[in-house]
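Journal club prep — side note

Before the paper discussion, L.F. wants everyone to see what a predicted structure for a comparable chain looks like in token form. Sequence:
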Amino acid sequence: MQPYAIAKEDPRSRTACHLERLGRAVQFSPSAQKEFEELITRYPNKQAAVLPTLWLAQREFGWISMEAVDYVAGLCELAPSHVYGVVSFYTMYNRRPVGKYLLQLCTNLSCQLMGAEEILAALEQKLGVGLNDTTIDAMFTLLEVECLADCEHAPMIQVNDTFIGPLTPASAGQLIDDLRAKGLPPEGGR
């Protein structure tokens, strides 16, 4: 096993998650490559640009596979183990494919006290999936997050980059219906 992979994420056992097998090359498009080249001019060296380069890779590929880790490591002149350490530390990087709508439900203290468990149960029932799962149509991925830092609107959910709250079990179900029918509002909520 490679020293930077934990046992359950051994790259040799993740054959179903290789970008090449999904028909996508692990290489930036010309526009993303241009964005990367502009990006690195803002940093003292390529290594310092690893976080925004990973963000660009996630936007380009949809998630950060082990191949994407290797690709970003090459671009930033870093060891793959260093880049994997960054990816595995920050929750903003998806290490597996996610749905069109990434639902991140806050279950920290304020949200718990205001009913996050009931919201979670309503979402699981409405979507037919559990935590860390993606719906069969690849529309929704349901995750639990530690804190969205918006306790005033607890219980909260982040849908992609949009914060929504406070929620009730009924409004959580309505949110799913609205996303299926209309998508996210153009202004992205609050």
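L.F.'s comment for the group: The beta strands are 101-106, 133-134, 140-145, 157-159, 162-164. Keep this in mind when we get to the figures.
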